[in-house]
Amino acid sequence: MAEHLIRQAVPDDSSTLSDLDQIARSSSDRRDFIQDAVKNNRAWIVEICDRIIGYGVISHGFFGRSFIDLIYIAEPLRSSGYGPKLLTFLEDQSQSNDLFTSTNESNSHMQHVLKKLGYERSGVIHNLDPGDPEIVYVKRSLRA
What are the backbone angles phi and psi of residue 36, rounded to the nearest 5°? Predict the structure, then answer.
């Protein structure tokens, strides 16, 4: 894994993140989500040699707890260890003892990463993505 830097996103990064994210390229909702996360200091960027290769978004209003809304790593660099590094970094940004996140049932790679990092399955939400339930995970006692 190449040397990387994780930093808070700034407004000038919004268009780069939207270009990087395959969903944002065709979804104005996703572009708006990115712009809002950057504006509200909830987006963090992974860079290699000054090139953005991924980002994550964390919020702090999930029933009084922090929630990792999104982790996105550029397709060619997935499975290179940057996702777990970003997740671990975002754990340090949590404002609660328990940190939640979720992933689709079809995303077995992310489920494996979460389990490896000590997250436990907490529940399932149906009807967000047709035919692909969302699995909610929690990592307990971050501040213990």
Answer: -65, -40
CB 120 within 8 A of CB 140: yes
Instruction: Please identify which residue in the block is written with the tokens 């990064």.
Output: 13
Reported in sequence order, the residue ranges of the chain that DSSP labels E, i.e. its strands, are 5-8, 43-48, 51-62, 65-73, 99-104, 120-125, 134-139
Burial class (CB in 10 A: 0-12, 13-18, 19+), 47: middle
Cβ atoms of 51 and 73 closer than 8 Å:
no
Cβ–Cβ under 8 Å, residues 141 and 117: no
How far apart are alpha carbons 43 and 37 in whole angstroms? 5
φ, ψ (nearest 5 deg) of residue 28: -65, -30
Is 26 within 8 Å of 65 (Cβ atoms)? no
Nearest in space to 46 (alpha carbons), one of 77, 91, 15, 12: 77
- pLDDT tens profile 80-117: 899 999 999 999 999 999 999 999 999 999 999 999 99
CA distance 65 to 46: 24
Residues 46 and 73: beta-carbon distance below 8 Å: yes
pLDDT given for residue 78 in this prediction: 86
